[in-house]
Specification:
This protein has helices at residues 7-15, 38-56, 82-92, 128-137, 164-168, 172-180, 184-187, and strands at residues 62-71, 74-75, 96-106, 112-123, 157-161, 191-192. By secondary structure, the protein is an alpha+beta fold. It has a single domain (7-192), classed as Alpha-Beta Complex (Maf protein), CATH 3.90.950.10. A hairpin with a 5-residue loop joins β3 (96-106) and β4. The longest helix is centred in the N-terminal third of the chain and has 19 residues, at 38-56.
């Protein structure tokens, strides 16, 4: 089961031939706790999503995930409006930032296992026209840090160090290994949760 409504996560799972039996989005408060670091924030939210959905589906494998874009200790928001997206892009312009991915798996016996991963992303310096064009395209809507690496923003990326799929929304290598390490291969079906 997948505890996420993210179409990007579903596409990523399909890419590696994993298709959740059920997609049951988990709606949790994503507000960072006081002084919470980005990596811990991503892992806490992934665990909360998986546990919330597992309570509704006992006996299932339930996968939860979260993605956090951060500059230093600063957690960037999911862009809900063009001004927020613009502020994010201005902050990321010409800089290295980190994308923290948390994945959590609730096993059929109720145990929780989790992992986190981190990818460094380096943006080129953006000129005002590039930012305006990106904002006009609308691709930033609902995206952590105001951009989607799998779309038009790919032209802004000078370098990534680490997992590309983590930046899209789900670190596939780590997810596959987490599932395989807990006998998921024998069960063969995944029940999804949400972002």
């Amino acid at each position: 089961m997948l505890a996420s409504a993210s179409p990007r996560r579903l596409d990523l799972l399909a890419q590696i031939a994993l298709s959740p039996d059920i997609v049951d989005p988990a709606h949790v408060d994503e507000t960072p706790l006081p002084r919470e670091l980005p990596a811990r924030h991503a892992l806490r939210l992934a665990e909360a999503k998986a546990c919330l959905v597992a309570a509704r589906h006992p006996g299932a494998f339930v996968l939860g995930a979260d993605t956090v874009v951060a500059c230093g200790r600063r957690i960037l928001p999911k862009a809900s409006d063009a001004d927020t997206a613009r502020r994010c892009l201005l902050l990321l312009s010409g800089r290295r930032h980190r994308v923290h991915g948390g994945i959590a798996l609730v096993l059929p016996d109720g145990r929780l296992v989790s992992r986190r991963t981190e990818t460094a992303v380096i943006f080129k310096r953006l000129d005002p026209g590039e930012i305006a064009d990106y904002l006009a395209a609308g691709e930033w809507q609902g995206k952590a840090g105001g951009y989607a690496i799998q779309g038009l923003a790919a032209r802004f990326i000078r370098q990534i160090i680490g997992s590309y799929s983590n930046v899209v929304g789900l670190p596939l290598f780590e997810t596959v290994n987490l599932l395989a390490g807990h006998s998921f291969g024998r069960a063969r079906r995944l029940a999804p949760t949400g972002r």
